[in-house]
Amino acid sequence: MGTFLGLLAALSLFATETSAFGLAPGMLPAALSSPSLTSYPPSLARTGHSAVAPLRMASSSAEAATGRRGFLQLAGAAVPAILTLGGGVSPAVAADSGTPVAGIALKTLQTIAGGSEAELEAFKAPTDLQGADAAIYKVYKYAAEKCPATEDPRASLRGLFQSRVADGVYKWGVDGGIAPKVYDARGDGMTNQGKGGAIKGVSTLLAGYKKKGLLKDFTVDSSKHVEDLWLQAQPTTMTITVTGAAGSGAGKALKAENGLLCSLAASGMQGYFKQVKLFSQFDQSFDGDVETIVVNLKWAGKERQKGTLDRRAADKLNAARAYTEKVE
Predict the structure, then answer these.
(1) CA 288-146-130 angle, 5° bins
(2) CB 199 within 8 A of CB 185
């Protein structure tokens, strides 16, 4: 409780000062400004704000730099609220499918950018989609308004939003018994020295979603991966195809409209790759109900990367010296 009150006090102090991502009046993240994730600030209706209040941008680069750091630090500290408070999918976004994406996306948005279920209900997102696709589409359109795109992507909350959704989707799977192997895939490789590593982990993850009825089928193509190059910190790529995934209709529509990546498979994989110390980027395309995801991977953590390469170079040098001394 002391930690929660401390975080609440810090956020209240932060909200009173000028920042790169100042919230509109009454729009502190719901998970931190009230005991309920579903509370809605009454002041929003009284003061004549629009139904969706995006985050205000800074008026100077110095202000943006200082404010962005502070906000992201608070958002990072607040992420447990996404994963622990109100664990169920809200009635506003439950739809008729077991996919967790809509509920997790809404809770993430409430934590990092404010908003509420009441505001989501009032938000207009006309679409011909139905069921889970319609629910996911509406939440992501709402997120696009709350986290607007910026000329400099680093100044937008969209990256943080997608990253936290990935954390939530991955944790949802783990809590449901989907447990791909977790280890350090940088030094130990994508195959974990032949023991079944991150490549197999992706298959385990998607097989778990299939078992839960969230997709019909999938393939994992790692034919372009070269383990020896990867162990030298060279990037690699994988191609994943997913057929009949829950929410794929919403993903297709959102990609065409605002560029937000909406994908059960991609979110789960991004969360998993973070666990095995990898940085991932996704290129998504659709052909009917088949979603193709090209995943580009590289080591996370420049210092770890440099240290590993230096260690390997030193090992080779020491081995060469030992051989030379033995011959002499």
Answers:
(1) 35
(2) no
For residue 55, the 8-state DSSP code is P
Mean pLDDT score of the chain: 76
* pLDDT, tens digit, 9 for 90 and up, residues 216-243: 999 999 999 999 999 999 999 999 999 9
How far is residue 230's CA from residue 98's CA, in Å, rounded to a whole number?
36
User: CB of 208 within 8 A of CB of 177?
Assistant: yes
Largest Cα–Cα separation, the chain: 88
Q: Are 99 and 136 in contact (CB under 8 A)?
A: yes
pLDDT tens digits along 105-118: 999 999 999 889 99
- What is the percent of the chain with per-residue pLDDT over 90, rounded to a whole number? 54
1-39 pLDDT, tens per residue?
554 445 444 444 444 443 333 333 333 343 333 333 332
Q: Do the Cβ atoms of 153 and 81 come closer than 8 Å?
A: no
Give the helix ranges, DSSP H, for 123-197: 131-146, 158-175
Place of tokens 């809770």: 107
Smallest CA-to-CA distance from 19 within 75, 68, 74, 61 is with 68
Query: Rounded to an integer, what distance in angstroms lies between the CA atom of residue 164 and that of residue 324?
Result: 53
What is the crossing angle of helices 61-84 and 158-175, to 10°? Answer: 20
Please answer whether residues 82 and 104 qualify as being in contact, where contact means their C-beta atoms are separated by less than 8 angstroms. Answer: yes
Q: Residue 285's CB: how many other CB atoms inside 10 A?
A: 12
Whole-number Cα distances in Å, 234 to 185, 207, 314? 13, 28, 19
Distance CA 201, CA 280 (A): 15
CA 28 – CA 30 distance, rounded (Å): 6
Residues in CB range of 121: below 8 A, 6 or more apart: 92
Both ends of the chain: CA-CA distance in Å?
69
Count CA atoms within 13 Å of residue 323 on its CB side. 6
Tell me how far CA of residue 48 lies from CA of 24, 25, 26, 162, in angstroms. Answer: 12, 11, 12, 30
Write down the pTM of the prediction. 0.68
